[in-house]
Amino acid sequence: MSLADQPADRTGARLAPPAAATGTPSGPAELPTRRGATARLLRSELGLVLGRRRNQVLLAGLAAVPLLMGIVLFVTQDTPVAGQGPAFFDRVTGNGLFLVFTSLFVCLPFLLPLTIGIASGDAVAGEAAAGTLRYLLVTPVPRTRLLVAKALGALVFAACAVLAIAVMGLAVGAALFGLDDVTLLSGDTIPLAEGALRALGVVAYVALSLTGLVAVGLFFSTLTEVPVAAMAATVVVAIVSGVLDALPQLSAIHPGLLTHHWLDFGEFLRLQVDAGVLLEGLAVQAAWVVVFGALAWSRFTTADISS
Amino acid sequence: MSEGSAASSDLAVRTRGLTKRFRSGQVAVAGIDLAVPRGAVYGFLGPNGSGKTTTIRMLLGLVAPTSGEIELLGQPLPGGLGLALPRVGALVEGPAFHPYLVGRANLERLDAADATTDPRTRAARIAAALERVGLTAAAGKKYRQYSLGMKQRLGLAAALLRPRDLLLLDEPTNGLDPQGTREVRTLVRELADGGTTVLVSSHLLSEIEQVCSHIGIMSRGNLLVQGPRKDLTATGRAELRVTTSAGQAGHAAQALEGLGLAGPTVRETGATAVLSTELGEVAPEKVSQVIVSEGIDLIGLEVRRPTLENLFVELTGEGFDVAR
Q: ABC transporter domain spans which residues (chain B) (predicted)?
């Protein structure tokens, strides 16, 4: 170990630029929070989430779905089974843009919840399991700020997951089938530019539809030091919600279920988009975010960190 | 036991009645009054499971005390945690980093999380910290490829990312070879010379004894003793052993009692007898003068001061077994 001179840089590092010092709350102001500190934490968190090989593989796996479906459709388009398949499947060969919709439709029941479960379940529990959580907290990062950073990291990853499917769907669809004016569910046709806008709306709605599940996963993530447990529990919540949604006897609770409104993104393909339907879906997500966000916060800000 | 008279500003760490009872009912820390003077190297000793790590976790705000008060660098916890912690470097229960990131990236991650450091000096500070712990050559290696000793060094580097007023080092020599252990001791001494207060915990007394100015000994959640090291080993516990010829043992015993020493135990071995008693405040040269002036054969005179190791074993029981 070298004899690097510790005391020499003592004062230098402790002085903050005057700009950073103003506006900080009073008190012993020897260590003011520097400007952009939250942004740096967020950037670091995003770098960690998006730089991680496992997460990149997940995104690649999601992007493979439209690629596979596009190839299958392309190869089979002149055979008798052409067009048989999930929603919007039969329209893809006529307009590549529909590959975006059909891919999202296919991924929503399981692949996207799985991805969200991994990202959000790992958020806090992963750091706890690695032991890095205690070092972040003593750095110090206030617990609320860390939880917000973790939540945003998981949300950005969820958005990336949806975008990976959409962008790949658009690219493959355009390459194999070309883009054209969009024929809506009603049979009316709108120009491609408006169709593209509506596709953007679909992507945004699907991404926002996943926020409730992110909050659930984040809460589970604060309960355990075993990331896999939090991930699995999150996926189970999505699946159970889907099962309950399929039971007509429970129709009374259906509107509040986490997954009930997920497929309402089809609304964007009607001539008159009913904003009420979309807003109801988003309101349900907001409610789940508030409830489970609050649970995660109250748990994480009071828990003993013994990992 | 505690330095109750010291003003809290003289203490880098001060706790009063600090207690942690886990939900299981187990009392990990049972009302301790820790007093770590500023500038001290405080050896926090005790067998595994004696409550050292739980105490350190409470000092760092990771675990909430069941009762009791903590002052860290003059800041009362938990309110002052945000002000105190940037000035505290810590190694808690071993190093922990992201295994898939290289050493330097792990330090960058921690530094980015610190709201009080200057990002413009980050690269230089990280390089200096790595250099300081001798890890520069392995900075670009993934953490998972590190040996235990390298991991420990990276943990120390993280604690040294910025100038600190207090270092809480929990078992910093764990996993290090003798050379590494010596380097850690040297590092602790350097830091202390630079004015940093260091609290270093260990269950292996011999590894840190030499660098400590103060010692606290934990056992079963209790702080049995604490204070300056020389006081602990130089208290009135020194034992006096006087060897005379066997026939004069009774006379010698009277002479010792005449000096105010407690009645000595006499053990005769052949032609000689060994009288032993607690030395107390009496000067050893005074003992020899009196015995010689009484005409007693003084064959040997020995003062046995307790070593820290004796004290440790005496207080915590034999050996370094798990306490519970």
A: 13-245
In B, which residues are within 8 Å of A2 by CB distance?
131-132, 134
Nearest to B132 among A4, A43, A137 (CB): A4
Cα distance between residue B48 and residue B89, in whole Å: 22
Question: Which among A182, A59, A179 is positioned nearest to A119, based on CA atoms?
Answer: A59
Between the alpha carbon of residue A237 and those of residues A212, A244, A259, the distances in Å are 11, 10, 10
Q: How far apart are CA A52 and CA A32, in angstroms?
A: 32
Is residue A39 helix, strand or coil?
Answer: helix
Chain B: closest CA distance from residue A274 (Å):
44
Per-window interface: B 12-41 vs A, CB < 8 A = none
Q: Would the CB atoms of A13 and B118 count as touching at under 8 Å?
A: yes
- A304: nearest CB among B64, B109, B196: B64
In a domain, A195, yes or no: yes
| A28–B64 C-beta distance less than 8 A | no
Tell me which residues of chain B, numbers 160 to 179, contact chain A at a CB-CB cutoff of 8 Å: 160, 162-163
pTM surpassing 0.80? yes
Of A4, A9, A131, the CB nearest to B131: A4
Q: Round to whole Å and give the CA distance between B95 and B212.
A: 22
Residues of A in contact with B88 (CB under 8 A): 138
Domain that holds residue A169: 88-302
Q: ipTM beyond 0.95?
A: no
Burial class (CB in 10 A: 0-12, 13-18, 19+), B105: buried
The answer to whether the Cβ–Cβ distance between B117 and A34 falls below 8 Å is: yes
Q: pLDDT tens-digit profile of B277-304?
A: 887 778 888 888 888 888 888 888 888 7
* Residue A184: other Cβ atoms inside 10 A: 16
Task: For tokens 């900075």, name the residue.
Answer: B139
The pLDDT tens digits for A20-69 are: 333 333 334 455 677 788 899 999 999 999 999 999 999 999 999 999 99
The 10 Å CB-count burial string (b at 16+, else e) for A189-200 is: eeeeeebeebbe
CB B296 within 8 A of CB B253: no
Residue A243 lies in a domain: yes
Any domain includes A70 = no
Q: Do A141 and B128 touch (CB under 8 A)?
A: no
Residue B3 pLDDT > 60? no
Q: Provide the domain count of chain A.
A: 1
The shortest CB-CB distance from B85 to any of A43, A138, A305 is to A138
Of the candidates B66, B71, B40, the residue with the CA atom closest to the CA atom of residue B51 = B66
**Under DSSP, is residue B52 helix (H, G, I), strand (E, B) or coil?**
helix
Q: Which residues between 120 and 179 in chain A have a beta carbon less than 8 angstroms from any beta carbon of chain B?
A: 130-132, 134-142, 146
3-state secondary structure of B40: coil
Q: Distance between CA A300 and CA A220 in Å, rounded? A: 10
